[in-house]
From TrEMBL:
Alphabetized InterPro entries for the sequence: A_deaminase_dom, ADE, Ado/ade_deaminase, Metal_Hydrolase
Cofactor names: Zn(2+)
Designated name of the protein: Adenine deaminase
Sorted UniProt keywords: Hydrolase, Metal-binding, Nucleotide metabolism, Zinc
SUPFAM superfamilies, A to Z: Metallo-dependent hydrolases
Cofactor remark: Binds 1 zinc ion per subunit.
Span of domain Adenosine deaminase: 9-329
Catalysis performed (reactions): adenine + H2O + H(+) = hypoxanthine + NH4(+)
Leader sequence segment: none
The keyword tRNA processing appears for this protein: no
Pfam families associated with the record: A_deaminase
Binding-site residues for Zn(2+), renumbered to this chain: H14, H16, H194, D275
Amino acid sequence: MKDLIKALPKAELHLHIEGSLEPELMFELSKRNNIKIPYKTVEEVKAAYNFTNLQSFLDIYYAGANVLITKQDFYDMTWEYILKCKEDNVIHTEIFFDPQTHTQRGIAFETVISGIKEALDEAKKQFGITSEIIMCFLRHLSQEEAFETLNQSLAYKNNIIGVGLDSSELGNPPKKFEEVFKKAKNEGFKLVAHAGEEGDVSYIEDALDLLQIQRIDHGVQAINSETLMKRLKDEQIPLTVCPNSNIELKVFENYKEHNIKELLDFGLNITVNSDDPAYFKGYMNQNFYNLCDNLPLSKEDIIKLVKNSFKSAFISDKLKEEYLKQIDEVAKEFL
Ligand SMILES: Nc1ncnc2[nH]cnc12
Ligand SMILES: [Zn+2]
């Protein structure tokens, strides 16, 4: 099974670039920029990555992002992630970034987006890896602040395919961002949102109905509503599920308890993603390995999950077809 996972070309649709900042690079950047971090060693950092829920992670994650100052820093972080893509045979990736995490600290929007974009351009040039960028609003901040961010992003519209919503879900329902998502839609952005990670099914329903999103990030709580499950199946709305993240943030107690196989068997459009791999013990392939080690997933299931990612990607039909053909060619050697 591991050979199949390694050999399959994969797409990633749920990856926070700030969540790919490895402790080693965090230390390097803290020295380079003379920014203090509350750890003495890489081991100490790793020991701090012991989360009890989403908020306990976010507190540490935002503190880690403080070491990112220059365009080169954003380039280096993105390039390290690209090297992991290469290693894991991820050939297309749609990455999130959180502009407000940086603009709030006085870092220019331009610095952030240009560092990320240049690394992604280099990835296409050197490795043929294709990519898109999605900007997320932080939902613990106000809609007014999200509007400011949307207005700032308009100058970079060519480089940003979509808008998302992340950070603390509970207490920050989709309704809070209804107007700013309306404007983003009018501006031509694709729309996604984290929903049903910790929040109940109403967060997913409202993200679909009020925000008009095209993909649900996480969405694992959908299982608690038969009506919603049927809708997600009928409309084939993609769910970007992140197994390692769900275990590390205690959404499920362990991999055996994870509901991904049930969601898939019900007929939902499920994809596998790494979310914040530097914090959640592994990149794309490791997520698949952990699932296969603990759940009765077949080779056909793995191929389906991988194909779903390409089908749900924000790429042209022509490119989709090309990628799906590549998968079929690899898959037939294993079936
Ligand atoms: N899993 C997650 N949920 C919400 N916000 C996030 N930001 C980074 N990772 C996140
Ligand atoms: Zn996420």
